[in-house]
Design brief:
single chain; 386 residues; alpha+beta; Beta-lactamase; Peptidoglycan synthesis regulatory factor (PBP3), Domain 2; 2 domains; five-stranded antiparallel beta sheet; 17 strands; 28% strand
Length: 386
């Protein structure tokens, strides 16, 4: 973005802030200087849309597609179906993919982690297919998983025909749908860690060394950026699904159909600049912070600590946030056995009697049923204290 455009945009933000600081979320009628055909800015915590431009317009996602491939790989890792250090033998089919690739050879062996880095950093079409085949058996079977996951996430205007985003008229999505996928991706810390690596070398002890250089250039010059995935084809133009975290506020952005080189980065910056200048996040409790306890009946222990399902907080327009309170409601008693993660209440963020946000409260630990003799001891202990 040129200094002249940057200066004009800074003035725009200052004037906009003066007139809208007290407006409720989300701010409406905002016009940002974007050339993207479609764009969206979302609060990752609540899913609130902070800005959108034709966000449901159906377009080609190009290599942004690979974010779904990474999410499905993370899910397979989570359930133990695959492991990061698994050694994968590259098929002839996977090695045949060109365009953006990491020069895989048929029969070559790489670890899953090396291939995932090849997807996230170098946008390897061949690496994507190799991982897809390893997880699902065939590329086609993996694509079925992609479409099932899209439906599960509510990506109603998305259809995948491949795992890498190579152009196909039946392969499409929207900025809004990819913001939903990005929220799902944030559930996997390992995915963020991989996406935030700037450089990675493979085959270092062979005659075919190769270095991945992350195509997400915001990692170098926009503080707080740690994901996700760029995209480009002649039909899709420049695309980017990204995320950035500053001062407790995590934003998700998607731009699609940007007509100029590197424009997907400058326009993502515009979205992030707007988001961080206009909004803030007020946190009350961290995820898994103990906020109380619930009595347990018929259990080996009499009480179980209670923690939030996720961090308790709310996104606000700058200047708001006064007179906010939290209210905790817990079940009076839960009988054993109690499972870790069982919902035992909720915590609400309240202003002037109105509930602005609500988060489930969960049991922190398992509580097994007490033995017969433990129950007898509890009865006698209760009688003795009367």
């Amino acid at each position: 973005m040129s200094s002249r455009v940057s200066s004009k945009f800074s003035v725009f933000l200052l004037v906009f802030f003066l007139f809208t600081a007290l407006a409720p979320l989300p701010l409406r009628g905002v016009e940002l200087p974007l050339k993207a055909e479609s764009a969206i800015l979302m609060d990752a915590h609540s899913g609130k849309i902070l800005y959108e431009k034709e966000s449901h317009k159906i377009l080609y996602p190009a290599s942004m597609t690979k974010l779904m491939t990474l999410v499905l790989a993370m899910e397979a890792l989570e359930i133990g179906k695959i492991k990061m250090n698994d050694v994968i033998t590259v098929s002839e089919n996977a090695a045949s993919y060109r365009g953006s690739h990491i020069y895989l050879a048929p029969g070559e062996k790489l670890t899953l982690r090396e291939l995932l880095l090849g997807i996230a950093l170098a946008s390897g079409n061949d690496a994507s297919v190799a991982v897809a085949e390893y997880i699902a058996g065939t590329h086609e079977a993996f694509v079925d998983l992609m479409n099932k996951k899209a439906a599960e996430l509510g990506m109603k205007n998305t259809h995948f025909v491949n795992c890498n985003g190579l152009h196909n008229s039946e392969h499409y999505s929207t900025a809004y749908d990819f913001s939903l996928l990005a929220r799902a991706a944030l559930c996997f810390p390992d995915l963020l860690e991989i996406c935030s690596v700037k450089h990675y070398r493979i085959r270092t002890e062979t005659k075919r060394p190769f270095q991945y250089d992350n195509k997400n250039k915001l990692l170098w010059f926009y503080s707080g950026t740690d994901g996700f995935k760029t995209g480009w084809t002649e039909d899709a133009k420049y695309c980017f699904v990204g995320t950035c975290y500053r001062d407790g506020l995590r934003l998700i952005s998607v731009v699609m159909g940007v007509p100029v080189p590197r424009g997907h980065f400058s326009e993502t910056q515009i979205l992030f600049n707007y988001g961080f200048s206009q909004f803030s996040f007020q946190e009350f409790y961290k995820e898994k912070e103990i906020v109380g306890e619930v009595k347990v009946g018929k259990g080996k222990t009499n009480k179980v600590p209670v923690v939030p399902e996720k961090r308790v907080g709310i996104i606000l327009s700058r200047g708001e946030g006064k007179d906010l309170n939290t209210e905790i409601e817990l079940v009076p008693l839960v009988n054993a056995p109690v499972k870790k993660g069982e919902v035992v209440g909720h915590i609400s963020i309240v202003k002037d009697g109105e509930i602005l946000a609500r988060t489930n409260l969960l049991s922190k630990d398992d509580v097994v049923k007490g033995s017969f003799w433990q129950m007898v001891k509890k009865v006698f202990r209760g009688v003795a204290t009367k």
